[in-house]
Write a structure and sequence with these properties.
heterodimer, A: about 120 residues, mainly beta, seven-stranded mixed sheet, B: about 110 residues, five-stranded antiparallel sheet, globular
Chain lengths: ~120, ~110
Amino acid sequence: DTEVTQTPKHLVMGMTNKKSLKCEQHMGHRAMYWYKQKAKKPPELMFVYSYEKLSINESVPSRFSPECPNSSLLNLHLHALQPEDSALYLCASSPILQGSYGELFFGEGSRLTVL
Amino acid sequence: AQSVTQLGSHVSVSEGALVLLRCNYSSSVPPYLFWYVQYPNQGLQLLLKYTSAATLVKGINGFEAEFKKSETSFHLTKPSAHMSDAAEYFCAVSSMDSSYKLIFGSGTRLLVRP
């Protein structure tokens, strides 16, 4: 069983909808990540939070809005998405931002379909 | 800049045969290297990692990898493939230079024939 839990597992939304993806970990990790993965491609880094502060934004469009309410939770708010945003969104965590040399613990992902 | 190259987007083996998935890296500083596995409709799971200790690294599910600096390689092997090994495998590199940001290879899909 994964120790990083993502909800929902599947989400279908229209281009005018507002929805959120949620991620939770209880390993005491202080760095949390959002990745986007298109079919047959490696994960692409979107955002990194370190100690609940946004540390890295990989030039992600503003229709994706991350939030880290506390050290265990990470949200990704979605608004006015495009069909090309359909993908598997993966959450990951690590003990600290530069801890474990880059080893990450991944959730099972939320599969997003934008109609 | 760092990069990872995985040779072969698809590898097919018979059940019980040797598994060899190739990974070559490029890094100007000592790298840290990882193999992750992704089963269908799941997230990524760490198989093993090299962090400058022993060059032969053993991981989960019978996999191992050897760090060869002279060849800039970190190939993944398993002596005997099992049907349950069918998955996507990603090699990844990080280093102090990149603030330990993971750089993933393009992935190799392992197919296991009965």
